[in-house]
């Protein structure tokens, strides 16, 4: 029974935190050196316990601390990266425990608190679902699914370790005050999702995986996944670029 509960808990955790489907192919990771040249890595930096057969052609990013850092299926965080300024976000969550998922990097947490307060004033009640996730935790979750369904299948619904935005401490999944539709497609039609799509940029957040941009982001539409990029970049992406990928390409972040 205990084992069963653990599995269910793990499954739920990943289900609400998987955030996206994958269009993967398999190539070794590369790393950008300081002078901008790419270097091949001998093996994926994501996890030694996972097979390398399906590793994307990814580069390890050189600016993980930047709030506009691009992390996606082709751009992964350094293996040893851990954000240095994580704090517990002072907003209500769908759970009560004081655990890792409540954390964000400080500027993102402060901006989220302001966003939640202002939303509430307009009758929009929000709850946090899942914020920061450590690299170790992502590896653990991915390994669980890879073991159960095979790595290729796992990649269709779970981010490969090192490529999840949740590892940056700048991303959070949110839902409405009822707790319904947490990280589910039905969230798209709620007043909370509409409010976020119109207003989140004013607080420095973007809807990271917008509708119709699947080919650019590599993820299906996720109206619940907010990414902090700072107010200036968020306004620019909201008004002009639509995705962080396009913005990063133009701005060379
Ligand atoms: Zn997410």
From TrEMBL:
Keywords: Carboxypeptidase, Hydrolase, Protease, Signal. The keyword Ribosomal protein does not apply. GO terms for molecular function: serine-type D-Ala-D-Ala carboxypeptidase activity. Its EC number is 3.4.16.4. Residues 22-49 are annotated as: Disordered. GO terms for biological process: proteolysis. The keyword Cell membrane does not apply. It is an enzyme of class 3 (hydrolase). Residues 1-17 form the signal peptide. CDD domains: LD-carboxypeptidase. InterPro entries: DD-CPase-like, VanY-like_core_dom, VanY/YodJ_core_dom, Zn_M74/Hedgehog-like. This is D-alanyl-D-alanine carboxypeptidase.
